[in-house]
Amino acid sequence: MDIESDQTATDEERMETIRxxxxxxxxxxxxxxxxxxxxxxxxxxxDRSTWREMCGFGWLSVRIPEAQGGLGFGMQExxxxxxxxxxxxxxxxxxxxxxxxxxxxxxxxPAVLSGDRIILPAWQEEAGTLADAPxxxxxxxxxxxxxxxxxxxxxxxxxxxxxxxSGLALVEAMASGVSLTAEQTQDGGHxxxxxxxxxxxxxxxxxxxxxxxxxxxxxxxxxLLGLSERAFRMTIDYLKIRRQFGKPVGAFQxxxxxxxxxxxxxxxxxxxxxxxxxxxxxxxSGSQQRAAVSRAKARASRCASLVCREAIxxxxxxxxxxxxxxxxxxxxxxxxxxxxxxxRAHRARYVALMKVA
Amino acid sequence: MDIESDQTATDEERMETIRxxxxxxxxxxxxxxxxxxxxxxxxxxxDRSTWREMCGFGWLSVRIPEAQGGLGFGMQExxxxxxxxxxxxxxxxxxxxxxxxxxxxxxxxPAVLSGDRIILPAWQEEAGTLADAPxxxxxxxxxxxxxxxxxxxxxxxxxxxxxxxSGLALVEAMASGVSLTAEQTQDGGHxxxxxxxxxxxxxxxxxxxxxxxxxxxxxxxxxLLGLSERAFRMTIDYLKIRRQFGKPVGAFQxxxxxxxxxxxxxxxxxxxxxxxxxxxxxxxSGSQQRAAVSRAKARASRCASLVCREAIxxxxxxxxxxxxxxxxxxxxxxxxxxxxxxxRAHRARYVALMKVA
Amino acid sequence: MSTGEDLNALDxxxxxxxxxxxxxxxxxxxxxxxxxxxHFAENKPWYLALSxxxxxxxxxxxxxxxxxxxxxxxxxxxxxxxxxxxxxxxxHGMTMLGPLLIRYGTEAQNARFLPKxxxxxxxxxxxxxxxxxxxxxxxxxxxxxxxxxHWVVNGQKTWTTMASDANWxxxxxxxxxxxxxxxxxxxLLVPMDVPGVTVRPILNLERHxxxxxxxxxxxxxxxxxxxxxxxxxxxxxxxxxxxxxIFLGSPRQASYALSRLELLxxxxxxxxxxxxxxxxxxxxxxxxxxxTLFASFVARLRRGETLGxxxxxxxISQSELFRRITDYxxxxxxxxxxxxxxxxxxRDLNPAGLFLQARxxxxxxxxSEIQRNIIAKNVLDLPx
Amino acid sequence: MSTGEDLNALDxxxxxxxxxxxxxxxxxxxxxxxxxxxHFAENKPWYLALSxxxxxxxxxxxxxxxxxxxxxxxxxxxxxxxxxxxxxxxxHGMTMLGPLLIRYGTEAQNARFLPKxxxxxxxxxxxxxxxxxxxxxxxxxxxxxxxxxHWVVNGQKTWTTMASDANWxxxxxxxxxxxxxxxxxxxLLVPMDVPGVTVRPILNLERHxxxxxxxxxxxxxxxxxxxxxxxxxxxxxxxxxxxxxIFLGSPRQASYALSRLELLxxxxxxxxxxxxxxxxxxxxxxxxxxxTLFASFVARLRRGETLGxxxxxxxISQSELFRRITDYxxxxxxxxxxxxxxxxxxRDLNPAGLFLQARxxxxxxxxSEIQRNIIAKNVLDLPx
Lengths: 357, 357, 384, 384
Description:
The complex is a heterotetramer, with two copies of chain A and two copies of chain C. Chain A has three domains: 2-113, Acyl-CoA dehydrogenase/oxidase, N-terminal domain (Butyryl-Coa Dehydrogenase, subunit A, domain 1), CATH 1.10.540; 119-204, Beta Barrel (Butyryl-CoA Dehydrogenase, subunit A, domain 2); 209-356, Butyryl-CoA Dehydrogenase, subunit A, domain 3. Chain A has a four-stranded mixed beta sheet. Chain A has a four-stranded antiparallel beta sheet with strand order 2-3-7-6, with no helix packed on it. In chain A, strands 9-10 form a two-stranded antiparallel sheet. Chain A is an alpha+beta fold. Chain A has helices spanning 12-29, 34-39, 48-56, 75-87, 94-103, 109-113, 209-241, 253-281, 286-315, 326-336, 343-356; strands spanning 119-122, 138-139, 143-152, 159-164, 167-172, 178-184, 190-200, 202-204, 243-244, 247-248. Chain C folds into three domains: 7-89, Orthogonal Bundle (Butyryl-Coa Dehydrogenase, subunit A, domain 1); 124-232, Butyryl-CoA Dehydrogenase, subunit A, domain 2; 249-379, Butyryl-CoA Dehydrogenase, subunit A, domain 3 (Up-down Bundle), CATH 1.20.140. In chain C, β2 and β3 (150-161) form a beta hairpin. The longest helix of chain C is centred in the last third of the chain and has 29 residues, at 274-302. The radius of gyration of chain C is 22 Å and the shape is globular. The model of chain C has no long low-confidence stretch (mean pLDDT 93). The chains are: A alpha+beta, C alpha+beta.
C-alpha cells in the first residue's frame, strides 16, 4: 500500500461542510427513539410529514447535481449524513428514493425532491441477488409484465422505477395492472411484491442506474455503520451502569475484551466506508469504485451483525425484550444486512472486480 | 439421536483392562520430557532400545489377533494407549509400524512384534491426500518403480510396506534401487522421500490395508487428544503459578473464559475419539466406521491446533522459547495434524461417507 | 389422574414404541410443531390427556402419581415427544416444583400440592430472577417478613416464564438480610390470585409474551407455605439445577436449526454451493460431536453418577452451536433474513424467527458467561 | 557519517523514486529477503552504507545527524525498504534510544552517544522485560543503587532482542522501592563489555537466537549514564511507545503472509478451490480494511495529531490477521505443515516457519490481551 501524497491533504472547508451536515442532522433527529418505535408495524412504516421536513433539509438532494436543483455534494458528505440516519434508525426511505431521483430526468425531479412524490426503485426478482440485469420483467415501451420482489416501503410509494430487460420504466402505484402484496419485516416495515400485468409505464432512458445503486449501497453501508456505532455506545453505557456481583458488569475482563473486538470491527468499518466514499469522489476507474463499495458494504453488514448480536448478549435478558431499545437496532440490522447485497454477495463481487481493476 | 439401550451398558471387566493398560503406559513413560527433547534432530529421531521395551509390553501388538501372536484388543484399548503415547510425546513409530503389522502375513510378524525389524508403511505420493489408491507407483510382482513421499521416521526403517497400483509390496530399505532423502520436521523427526528404481520387492496379498489405515488414523487422533489434554493441563498449571499485576494470571476472566473454550473442545474431542473406537469395535457398516474415524481425526486435528496455539499465547513470551516444554507439544501437533489426513480432508470424507452410510 | 402401569419393566425399544404409538393416537394435531410457546388455554387438552394417562410426571415416584421412570426412559420419552412435535407444557410444576417438594416438602405440603399439579388445577411459574438479580441470582432482594402466622412478601420478580397462565408461583425470597447473601434466602409458595400480586407480560424480540414481570405488594402468605427450613432456599434450589442443565444441553434446538439450514439452502439455490457445503459439513461435525458428548453425560447419569459442574459444558456447547447455525442462516437468507413470517407461507422455514429464538438460549438458565465462570472456578480450579 | 541534503523539499513521488533507486543500487543482494533476523555481523555492510549516506536515522533532526523527515516521508522510506526486502538492522539505537536522548538527554549525553549510534560503534539493545515483569512491565525488580559516583546494577533482563550483538544496553531499573511501582523506575545506559554482565542467547520456536537473557551482577555504571531525572524512567519510556505501536500496526507482515498463502494454495492445487477462494477473499477484505485503517492513523499523524490509546487497535488488528492467515496456511499445507525448511527448496514458501513467526506478534510489544485492557480502560472508559 502506498501512503497517499501530501497533495491530497484534508480540504478543511469540506470537513466543515460535513461537520455542519452531520450536526444539523443529529440535531433534528435527536436521541429519542419513541417516534421510530411508534411507526413500527403501522403502514407505511414511516411518516410523510417528517419525510417532507427531511426533503426540506435537502437530505434527498445531496447527490443530485446543483444544475438539477440538488445540492451536488460528494459521497463523503452523503455517507456522513447516512451514518446519522442509521444512528437514529430513521425509517423514512431517503436512500431508496435518492436512488430513484438520481435516475430520473429533470422534469420529474421537483415533485420528488420536494417530497410530494415518493418514487421507489423496484429491481429485485429473487432473494439474495445484487441489483443486476433483470431476467424476467419485460417492457415494450408501453406495457410492463413481470414481478418484482423485496421492494422496501412499497406501500408508501406513489410510483415505482422498475428495471426491465429493456431499460428502466416508471409506473404509477395506482395504475391498472399493478398489484401489490406486502410482508412485514423485523424493523416494523415491510417488503412489497409487485406484479405487473400489462401496466402502462413510461420509459426512463439514459439513467445512471449502476452509479445510483453504488451510491445507495454505500449509503446503506454508512447507515449500518451509524446504527452499529450507536448500538455499541448504548451497550458500553449499559455495561457501566448494570451491576451484578457488587460491581458494574463492564468491570469484568471477559466482557471488556469482547467490547474491544467490537470496537475494532467498528473502526475497520468506518475506515472502509470513508475510503469507499473518497474513492467515488475521486476519478479512479468504475470497477475500482464498485470494488470499494462492495468492500464497504461487506464490512458494514458483517459489523452490524456482529455488533448487534453481541449487544443483545451483553445486555442479558433485558436485551431480549421488545421494550429495550437495543432490540430496535438488531431488528433494523436484520432488515438491512442483506438489503442491497449481502456480505457474501459483496465479498464475491469485490474479488471479481479486483481482478479487472 | 437415539439414546442407546441399557443392554450395551459398560463392560466393567473391559474398563478395568483399559485402566491397567493406561496406568502401565503412564508409569513407564513418566512425565519427564528430557528423553523426548534429547532425541530431537538426532537420526532416526527415536530410540531403538526403548522401542524394544515398548514392543516387549505388547504396545505394537494391541490390534494383532491373539492367533497371530498379538493381544487381540479392541479399538477402545488402542485409543486409551495412544492417548498416553500422545501425552508423553512418544517419538517411537508405534502407530505406523502397527499399521504395517496388521497388513503383514504371519511369517513376517514375530520379528516385527519383537521389535527386531521396523517396517514402515509408504503410501503417500503427494501432500494433503488421504491414503487412497496410489496413482504412479508400479509393481510387476517383482520390481518396484515410483516415488513415495512423507514417510515419517523413514531413516529408522529396515523395510517399507509400499502401496502400488498392483497391491502392497514389501521392500528392504537397503535393497538396490531404493534411495532415501529426508526433510526435518518441526518435532525433531523427519519425513523421508523414497525413490524406487526397479528395486526388488515381495508382494503382500490380501492385506486389510484400509482397516489398518482406519486404526492408525484413529490412533493418531487419540495421540493428538492425549497431547492436547496434557498441553492444556500444563497451561492451566502455568496460569495458576505465573503472577502479573499482583495476582496469578489465571485469575483474569478473559483468560479463564478462553481456557473453558479449550476445555470444551477437548471434551468434544474425547467424546468423538471414544465414539469412533466404540464404532469400530461394534459391527456396523464399514462406511459408518470410516465416517466415525474421519469425524474423530477432523476433531482431534482441530483441537490440537487450537489448544497448542492458545497454549503458546497463554504462556506469553516464555512459550515462544525452544526451552519451554509447551513448544514441544505445538511442534508435535504441527507434525501430526495433517498426517494421516488433515481436518479439511477428513471433513470432506465424513460428509461423503455419511451419504452412503 | 390415574396410576398407570409400571413401564420400567419394558425393554427400551418396546417402551419407545409404546410411547410413540400412544402419542400418535392422542396428540391434538392442531397444536403440532408450534412456532411459539403455547399458553395453557392452548395446550390444556394435551396436559389433561397426559394427566388422565398418568404420564404427566415421568420422573416422579409412582407413589406420588408419577411414572417412576429411569433416567434413560425419561430421555426416550422426551425424544418421542420432540420427534412428534409436541408442544411444551406449562411444566414448572412437574419438572421443577414437584421434584423439590418430593425431596424437601412436608407430607402435608406434598398431599396438598402434588395432586393439583397432576390434575392441572395448579399451574406454577418460577420466581427466581429479579431486575437487579440476573446472573447474580443470589443478590435477590424480594423479601418475606414474618408477621404472626403469615409471610408478608414485597418485591418484584422478572423473566417469570408463562406467569400470566399461572395461578401459583414458587419463589426465592430474602428472609434474612444480615447474613451472607446465599444464606438468607428461603423458598416460598405463593398464590397468584390474591390481592397485591400484579403480573405484566413482557413482549420479547419475537413479540411473543412468554415471559412476565410479577409485582408483590404486601402479599400475605400462610407460614406453612415455606418449603424446607427458613434460609435454606438457595441450597435447595441449586440441587435441582444439575438435572435442568443436562436438558439445556440436549441437541434438540441445534439439530432442528441444522435441518432448517438445509431447507433454507435449498430454497436459496445453495444446496450444491461448495462454500455452503463446507460450512454445513462443519456444523454437521459439531453437532455429531456434541451429540456424542451429550450421550456420554447421559451414560454417566444412567450409571447413577452425580454430574459435576462440567455439565455446564453441554449448555454452552448446545446453545452456542444453535446460535452459530442461526447466525449463518441470516448470512445466506438474502432479503428473507428480514421477514417476520415464515418464507412463502412454509411455517417450517423462518430464519429470522429461529435466529431470534437462539438469542436467549445463551442467556437463560445461566448465561454462557456464567457457565464459563462456573467451569473455570469449579472444574479447572482457576483462582480469583 | 555525512550530513546529506534535505529531502523534505522533494515531493513524495520524487522522494519515493529517489529512495527506491538508491536502495536498488546499494543494497547488498546476498542479504535480500532474509528468512530470519540477521545478526550485526551479517547486516553491517548495509548499516554502514546507510550511515555513510546519512540515511540511518530518518526521524532524527538534521542537527543530530538525522534526516529530519516528515512522518509521511519516513513511512515512504520504510515502505521502500520493505518492498526491496531489506533486512532489519540492529536498530534500537536509531529508533528507540536516539529519540529518547534527543528529547530527554543532556547535551553531553547527546554528544557522547548519538554519533556512535550513527557510526555503528555502539550497537544498542533494550533492557525492559524481566522474568517476573512481562505484561506487568512496571513490576520490574532489577535495581540500581547509588554508591558514590556510580550506580550499582543487579538483576536480570530477558527478551532482550539481539543482545548478543550489542555492546550497550538501555535499561529500566528500580531506583526507589518505597513508592508506587511506576514512580521508582529510572532509565540507565549500561555498557555490556564490563565485568558483571553476562548474556545468554535463548533459542526461540524457530530455533533462532534473536533474543537473550542478560544478567547484571554488581555492575558499576557512572552516575552520568542516567537519562533524565531519577525515578522518571517510566514516563519517559512510555512517551516513546505510541510511535512504536503504529509501526507494529503496519500491514507488512499480514500482507506478506497473504501473498505466501496464495503461493501455497497454488502449490497444493487449491488455487481454484471454491472454499479456499472464499476464505482467501475474506482475508483480502480484512487486509484491505486494515490497510485503510492504518492509513487513517498515518493521516492523523501527518496532520500533526497526537495519537491516543486507540492506536493499540492497529497492533491487535495486524498481528491477529497475520496469525489467522498463517493458521490457515497450516490447515491447507498438508504434510508440508511439518517441515522446518521451505517447501521444495523455495525459500519464499515456508508455511511452518511463517506460522511460528506469527506466534510472538501477539505477545511482544504489549500482548493482545494488554492492548485490549488498554483500549477497554483508556478508550472505552470501562470500569475496574
